[in-house]
């Protein structure tokens, strides 16, 4: 189990031993994992991975969960072939590593994926969710991409976009009360700024006792008291998508 005081303890808890129900595809210059529901759907969700990359079983588990709820789900490699972070890496090098992977510079890849979803999958209504690094990317997209309908940012690193709050689309922000990466005062400030500047529907929710990464981690095996909050976070995410897609 990870040391929770690390700069980004996304790897707390066991990884899912999970193969995924979907398949890997090549979308122009990007590799992606895609899963489609058994009956045709015109609703799709782009899933933006955390620092551990697009192949993490936990993230694919969530993509498949979305598909079980009627969505085409696609998790592209937004690092575009650059190595994902490994738990064995030296955290002292993390700041330099993340500088070369900017959550605010994924627009080209998102445009490619949107075109694929519309042209190849028949998607008409498309939302986005993201975890940690991907949660920051969601906030970035909600500020500028006109083609997405809604977003869910799960413990997105607020400091990446702390001065920008004029969201274009309804956005749901999920945070853990005990998240060492995102102190509660940052969350309070985010709420204040959204209240002042945001013209669309949004919600900021803090889940009691939860640490960074709780919604897409398998923590219930370690701390059974976390299970209801993990399930609630997943249900809230899907309810938000259902409301706006």
Automatic annotation (TrEMBL):
Q: Which residues form the Dienelactone hydrolase domain?
A: 30-245
Do you know which InterPro entries this protein is assigned to? Answer: AB_hydrolase_fold, CMBL, Dienelactn_hydro
Under the heading Gene3D superfamilies, the entry gives: alpha/beta hydrolase
Keywords from the named record: Cytoplasm
Q: Which GO terms describe its cellular component?
A: cytosol
Q: Does the keyword Cytoplasm apply?
A: yes
- What superkingdom does the record give? Eukaryota
Statement: the UniProt record of this protein carries the keyword Cytoplasm = yes
Where can this protein be found? Answer: Cytoplasm, Cytosol
| Molecular-function GO term, any one | hydrolase activity
Q: What is its main location?
A: cytoplasm
The similarity annotation says: Belongs to the dienelactone hydrolase family.
Q: What is this protein called?
A: Carboxymethylenebutenolidase homolog
Gene source species: Oreocharis arfaki
Gene name of the record: Cmbl_1
């Amino acid at each position: 189990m990870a040391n929770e005081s690390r700069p980004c303890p996304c790897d707390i808890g066991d990884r899912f031993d999970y193969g995924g129900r979907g398949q890997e595809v090549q979308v122009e210059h990007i590799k992606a994992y895609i899963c489609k529901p058994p009956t045709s759907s015109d609703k799709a969700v782009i899933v933006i991975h955390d620092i551990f990359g697009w192949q993490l079983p936990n993230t694919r588990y969530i993509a498949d969960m979305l598909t079980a709820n009627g969505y085409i789900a696609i998790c592209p490699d937004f690092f575009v072939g650059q190595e994902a972070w490994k738990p064995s890496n030296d955290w002292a090098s993390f700041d330099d590593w993340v500088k070369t992977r900017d959550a605010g510079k994924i627009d080209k890849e998102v445009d490619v994926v949107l075109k694929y979803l519309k042209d190849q999958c028949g998607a008409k209504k498309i939302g986005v969710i993201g975890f940690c690094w991907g949660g920051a990317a969601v906030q970035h997209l909600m500020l500028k991409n006109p083609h997405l309908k809604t977003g869910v940012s799960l413990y997105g690193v607020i400091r990446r976009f702390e001065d920008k709050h004029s969201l274009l689309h309804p956005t749901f922000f999920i945070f853990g009360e005990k998240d060492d990466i995102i102190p509660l005062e940052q969350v309070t400030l985010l709420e204040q700024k959204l209240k002042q500047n945001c013209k669309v529907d949004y919600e900021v929710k803090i889940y009691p006792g939860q640490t960074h990464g709780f919604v897409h981690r398998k923590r219930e095996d370690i701390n059974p008291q976390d299970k209801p909050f993990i399930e609630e976070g997943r249900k809230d995410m899907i309810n938000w998508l259902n409301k706006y897609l």
